[in-house]
Specification:
Helix content is 26%, strand content 35%. The protein contains four helices and ten strands. The strands form three sheets. Strands 8-7-9-6-10 form a five-stranded antiparallel β-sheet. A three-stranded antiparallel β-sheet has the order 1-2-3, with helices on one face. A two-stranded antiparallel ribbon has the order 4-5.
Length: 257
Protein backbone atom coordinates (compact mmCIF):
# COMPACT_ATOMS: atom_id res chain seq x y z
CA UNK A 1 0.00 0.00 0.00
CA UNK A 2 2.85 2.33 0.92
CA UNK A 3 4.50 1.64 -2.43
CA UNK A 4 1.31 2.48 -4.30
CA UNK A 5 0.91 5.67 -2.30
CA UNK A 6 4.55 6.60 -2.86
CA UNK A 7 4.29 5.95 -6.57
CA UNK A 8 1.06 7.97 -6.82
CA UNK A 9 2.60 10.84 -4.87
CA UNK A 10 5.70 10.83 -7.05
CA UNK A 11 3.58 10.94 -10.20
CA UNK A 12 1.55 13.79 -8.71
CA UNK A 13 4.68 15.79 -7.88
CA UNK A 14 6.20 15.17 -11.30
CA UNK A 15 2.92 16.17 -12.93
CA UNK A 16 2.85 19.43 -10.96
CA UNK A 17 6.45 20.16 -11.90
CA UNK A 18 5.66 19.46 -15.56
CA UNK A 19 2.65 21.77 -15.47
CA UNK A 20 4.65 24.54 -13.81
CA UNK A 21 7.38 24.07 -16.40
CA UNK A 22 4.83 24.39 -19.22
CA UNK A 23 3.33 27.49 -17.59
CA UNK A 24 6.81 29.01 -17.39
CA UNK A 25 7.53 28.11 -21.01
CA UNK A 26 4.23 29.64 -22.12
CA UNK A 27 4.97 32.89 -20.32
CA UNK A 28 8.44 32.99 -21.87
CA UNK A 29 7.13 32.30 -25.38
CA UNK A 30 4.49 35.02 -24.92
CA UNK A 31 7.12 37.58 -23.93
CA UNK A 32 9.30 36.60 -26.88
CA UNK A 33 6.32 36.70 -29.24
CA UNK A 34 5.36 40.19 -28.12
CA UNK A 35 8.92 41.46 -28.54
CA UNK A 36 9.29 39.83 -31.95
CA UNK A 37 6.02 41.32 -33.18
CA UNK A 38 7.00 44.79 -31.97
CA UNK A 39 10.43 44.74 -33.59
CA UNK A 40 9.43 43.02 -36.84
CA UNK A 41 6.36 45.13 -37.57
CA UNK A 42 8.09 48.40 -36.76
CA UNK A 43 10.99 47.81 -39.16
CA UNK A 44 8.99 46.20 -41.99
CA UNK A 45 5.89 48.42 -42.21
CA UNK A 46 6.65 51.92 -43.55
CA UNK A 47 5.07 54.86 -41.73
CA UNK A 48 3.17 52.84 -39.13
CA UNK A 49 2.86 53.77 -35.47
CA UNK A 50 1.87 50.85 -33.25
CA UNK A 51 -0.96 51.92 -30.96
CA UNK A 52 -1.94 48.61 -29.37
CA UNK A 53 0.15 45.52 -28.72
CA UNK A 54 -0.79 43.07 -25.97
CA UNK A 55 -0.29 39.40 -25.11
CA UNK A 56 -3.17 37.45 -23.60
CA UNK A 57 -3.52 33.83 -22.52
CA UNK A 58 -5.95 31.34 -24.00
CA UNK A 59 -6.42 28.89 -21.17
CA UNK A 60 -2.95 28.68 -19.62
CA UNK A 61 -0.81 26.73 -22.08
CA UNK A 62 -1.24 28.94 -25.12
CA UNK A 63 -1.89 32.58 -25.97
CA UNK A 64 -2.07 35.29 -28.56
CA UNK A 65 -0.55 38.68 -29.32
CA UNK A 66 -2.92 41.23 -30.81
CA UNK A 67 -1.29 43.95 -32.91
CA UNK A 68 -3.14 47.10 -33.90
CA UNK A 69 -1.49 49.62 -36.21
CA UNK A 70 -2.24 53.14 -37.38
CA UNK A 71 -0.64 55.66 -39.70
CA UNK A 72 -0.27 59.38 -39.13
CA UNK A 73 -0.35 61.82 -42.03
CA UNK A 74 0.00 65.51 -41.22
CA UNK A 75 -1.55 65.05 -37.80
CA UNK A 76 -4.41 62.83 -39.01
CA UNK A 77 -4.39 59.29 -37.61
CA UNK A 78 -5.70 56.50 -39.86
CA UNK A 79 -6.32 52.97 -38.63
CA UNK A 80 -4.18 50.64 -40.73
CA UNK A 81 -4.73 47.01 -39.75
CA UNK A 82 -5.20 44.36 -37.06
CA UNK A 83 -3.10 41.23 -36.84
CA UNK A 84 -3.07 38.28 -34.44
CA UNK A 85 -0.11 35.99 -33.65
CA UNK A 86 -0.36 32.76 -31.63
CA UNK A 87 2.08 31.06 -29.27
CA UNK A 88 2.15 28.03 -26.97
CA UNK A 89 4.54 26.46 -24.49
CA UNK A 90 6.83 25.11 -27.20
CA UNK A 91 6.59 27.41 -30.19
CA UNK A 92 5.57 30.77 -31.67
CA UNK A 93 3.51 31.28 -34.79
CA UNK A 94 5.20 32.67 -37.88
CA UNK A 95 4.61 36.29 -38.67
CA UNK A 96 1.63 36.81 -40.93
CA UNK A 97 2.86 38.76 -43.91
CA UNK A 98 0.81 41.47 -45.56
CA UNK A 99 -0.84 40.00 -48.64
CA UNK A 100 -0.93 42.23 -51.70
CA UNK A 101 -3.04 42.54 -54.81
CA UNK A 102 -2.91 44.70 -57.92
CA UNK A 103 -6.19 46.63 -58.12
CA UNK A 104 -7.23 49.69 -60.13
CA UNK A 105 -3.70 50.39 -61.31
CA UNK A 106 -2.02 50.23 -57.90
CA UNK A 107 -0.76 47.73 -55.34
CA UNK A 108 -3.22 47.32 -52.47
CA UNK A 109 -3.16 45.67 -49.07
CA UNK A 110 -5.53 42.72 -49.32
CA UNK A 111 -6.76 43.15 -45.74
CA UNK A 112 -7.66 46.83 -45.74
CA UNK A 113 -7.71 47.69 -49.45
CA UNK A 114 -5.39 50.68 -48.97
CA UNK A 115 -2.73 51.67 -51.48
CA UNK A 116 0.73 50.33 -50.60
CA UNK A 117 3.98 52.28 -50.76
CA UNK A 118 6.64 50.95 -53.13
CA UNK A 119 10.35 51.46 -53.54
CA UNK A 120 12.12 50.89 -56.83
CA UNK A 121 14.06 47.69 -56.26
CA UNK A 122 11.42 45.37 -54.87
CA UNK A 123 10.82 42.35 -57.10
CA UNK A 124 7.26 42.88 -58.30
CA UNK A 125 5.60 42.56 -61.68
CA UNK A 126 4.85 46.26 -61.78
CA UNK A 127 6.15 49.41 -60.15
CA UNK A 128 3.35 51.94 -59.81
CA UNK A 129 4.63 55.50 -60.13
CA UNK A 130 2.80 58.23 -58.26
CA UNK A 131 -0.04 59.83 -60.22
CA UNK A 132 -0.64 63.21 -58.61
CA UNK A 133 -3.20 64.29 -61.22
CA UNK A 134 -6.00 62.47 -59.37
CA UNK A 135 -5.63 64.59 -56.24
CA UNK A 136 -5.79 68.21 -55.06
CA UNK A 137 -2.67 70.10 -54.01
CA UNK A 138 -3.93 70.47 -50.43
CA UNK A 139 -4.72 66.76 -49.98
CA UNK A 140 -2.33 65.08 -47.52
CA UNK A 141 -0.52 61.84 -48.31
CA UNK A 142 2.44 59.56 -47.71
CA UNK A 143 5.05 59.10 -50.41
CA UNK A 144 7.82 56.52 -50.90
CA UNK A 145 10.85 58.08 -52.57
CA UNK A 146 13.65 56.03 -54.17
CA UNK A 147 16.91 57.93 -54.66
CA UNK A 148 19.31 57.56 -57.58
CA UNK A 149 22.08 56.95 -55.07
CA UNK A 150 22.07 56.39 -51.31
CA UNK A 151 21.89 59.47 -49.07
CA UNK A 152 22.61 60.15 -45.41
CA UNK A 153 19.84 61.28 -43.08
CA UNK A 154 21.19 64.86 -43.10
CA UNK A 155 21.28 64.87 -46.92
CA UNK A 156 17.70 63.57 -47.01
CA UNK A 157 16.48 66.35 -44.70
CA UNK A 158 18.17 68.98 -46.85
CA UNK A 159 16.48 67.56 -49.95
CA UNK A 160 12.97 67.61 -48.50
CA UNK A 161 10.56 70.43 -49.49
CA UNK A 162 9.13 72.70 -46.79
CA UNK A 163 6.48 71.23 -44.45
CA UNK A 164 7.33 67.64 -45.42
CA UNK A 165 7.92 65.14 -42.57
CA UNK A 166 10.38 62.23 -42.80
CA UNK A 167 8.76 59.20 -41.11
CA UNK A 168 10.69 56.10 -42.25
CA UNK A 169 14.11 55.42 -43.81
CA UNK A 170 14.28 52.50 -46.24
CA UNK A 171 17.44 50.44 -45.68
CA UNK A 172 16.92 47.07 -47.36
CA UNK A 173 14.73 44.03 -48.00
CA UNK A 174 13.86 40.97 -45.93
CA UNK A 175 14.51 37.65 -47.62
CA UNK A 176 11.81 35.31 -48.79
CA UNK A 177 8.80 37.62 -48.64
CA UNK A 178 10.64 40.65 -50.07
CA UNK A 179 9.32 42.95 -47.37
CA UNK A 180 10.94 46.34 -47.01
CA UNK A 181 13.17 46.88 -43.97
CA UNK A 182 13.78 50.31 -42.54
CA UNK A 183 14.07 52.76 -39.67
CA UNK A 184 10.91 54.26 -38.09
CA UNK A 185 11.90 57.87 -37.41
CA UNK A 186 10.22 59.89 -34.68
CA UNK A 187 10.16 63.63 -34.17
CA UNK A 188 12.52 63.86 -31.20
CA UNK A 189 15.42 61.34 -31.23
CA UNK A 190 16.29 60.00 -34.70
CA UNK A 191 19.66 58.69 -33.48
CA UNK A 192 17.89 56.67 -30.78
CA UNK A 193 15.38 55.41 -33.34
CA UNK A 194 18.29 54.14 -35.41
CA UNK A 195 19.72 52.24 -32.42
CA UNK A 196 16.31 50.57 -31.97
CA UNK A 197 16.45 49.60 -35.63
CA UNK A 198 19.92 48.05 -35.16
CA UNK A 199 18.61 45.91 -32.28
CA UNK A 200 15.67 44.80 -34.44
CA UNK A 201 17.99 44.07 -37.36
CA UNK A 202 20.27 41.95 -35.15
CA UNK A 203 17.23 40.05 -33.89
CA UNK A 204 16.26 39.05 -37.44
CA UNK A 205 19.55 39.37 -39.33
CA UNK A 206 19.24 35.83 -40.71
CA UNK A 207 16.11 37.02 -42.54
CA UNK A 208 17.67 40.17 -44.01
CA UNK A 209 19.08 40.03 -47.54
CA UNK A 210 21.32 43.11 -47.23
CA UNK A 211 24.60 43.44 -45.26
CA UNK A 212 24.52 44.65 -41.69
CA UNK A 213 23.89 48.42 -41.60
CA UNK A 214 26.21 51.17 -40.40
CA UNK A 215 26.74 51.40 -36.61
CA UNK A 216 25.09 54.82 -36.23
CA UNK A 217 22.70 57.17 -38.00
CA UNK A 218 25.37 59.73 -38.90
CA UNK A 219 27.30 57.24 -41.06
CA UNK A 220 24.31 55.35 -42.48
CA UNK A 221 23.12 55.83 -46.06
CA UNK A 222 19.65 55.03 -47.31
CA UNK A 223 18.31 54.20 -50.80
CA UNK A 224 14.88 55.63 -50.05
CA UNK A 225 12.57 57.35 -47.60
CA UNK A 226 8.90 57.66 -46.64
CA UNK A 227 7.59 61.18 -46.17
CA UNK A 228 4.21 62.77 -45.45
CA UNK A 229 2.76 66.15 -46.35
CA UNK A 230 0.55 68.04 -48.80
CA UNK A 231 0.41 66.79 -52.38
CA UNK A 232 1.74 70.15 -53.58
CA UNK A 233 4.92 69.71 -51.53
CA UNK A 234 5.32 66.01 -52.26
CA UNK A 235 5.14 66.26 -56.04
CA UNK A 236 7.91 68.85 -56.05
CA UNK A 237 10.32 65.94 -55.53
CA UNK A 238 9.54 64.50 -58.97
CA UNK A 239 11.81 67.08 -60.59
CA UNK A 240 14.75 66.55 -58.20
CA UNK A 241 17.93 65.27 -59.84
CA UNK A 242 18.50 63.01 -56.81
CA UNK A 243 15.16 61.17 -57.08
CA UNK A 244 14.66 58.04 -59.18
CA UNK A 245 10.99 57.19 -58.60
CA UNK A 246 8.14 58.06 -56.26
CA UNK A 247 5.14 55.98 -55.16
CA UNK A 248 2.00 57.17 -53.34
CA UNK A 249 0.53 55.35 -50.38
CA UNK A 250 -2.45 56.60 -48.37
CA UNK A 251 -4.02 59.85 -49.57
CA UNK A 252 -6.52 61.78 -47.47
CA UNK A 253 -8.76 64.24 -49.24
CA UNK A 254 -8.79 67.75 -47.81
CA UNK A 255 -12.58 67.73 -48.16
CA UNK A 256 -12.78 64.96 -45.53
CA UNK A 257 -11.37 67.21 -42.86
Amino acid sequence: MKRVFGFTFAVFVMGCIAILFLFHRTDKQGALMRTDVEHWTNITTPNVQTNYLVASGIGRLMGRVDYRASKEISGQVIHWKNQTYLYNAMDRDRFRQNSQSYVDGSWRDSENGQRLLQFNGKSQERFVRADFSKFHDNDVAELAVTFKSKLTYDEIKQLMPENVVVTWLWSGIATGNAEYVGVPIGKEKPAGDYQYYLKSYDRFKSQMSWPKPAPNLASAKFPGVVITGNIANLKALETSDKVDKVSLGLVMSSSEG
